[in-house]
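Narrative summary of target 7.
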Amino acid sequence: DFQPEIVLVSAGFDAALGHPIPLGGYRVTPACFAYMTRQLMQLANGKTLDSYVLNKWTIELEPIHDNFSQLRGMISGPPNTPYDGGKYNLEIVIPDDYPFDPPKVKFLTKIWHPNISSVTGAICLDILKTQWAASMTVRSVLMSIQALLASPEPDDPLDAIVAGQYKQSYETYKKTAAHWNNIYAGSK
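Modeled conformation, tokenized:
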């Protein structure tokens, strides 16, 4: 009888049709891939390990629809930053040409950051635009977004007001970001 304490459902699009170099010689359609993953998730019966904890930096990822074209991500705010303790939800849309085109990612949780729109949640990150490579993964995108939270780039801002505050009054920026973290991201 199959009674594990926890199940790791590990899957990748690199075995599916349309990937430039199918690994393992598989010729699985995306629909079949989604079906098999759903079956594994049902077999796991809620005992899945679907988050990564790397030095207290948590990343979670879950599909919104059966076809895996829309995902919801969650990243924890990096320690020793104004975002520490916050849980930030992101919307991730996988384009038809993935992995050749980057996923479209935006924050659903409001955040005060120079490289993220405080209004729309849009993200200014080079790997989501010109520096994308087909070898990158959604996980690496989420890790890069966490790194951006830890190291803002105010000289390449998306939100000019936040960037101005960061440059002119760093302490006020930190207090405002921490306040938004408490209100919107559930930090205590």
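The longest helix spans residues 30-44.
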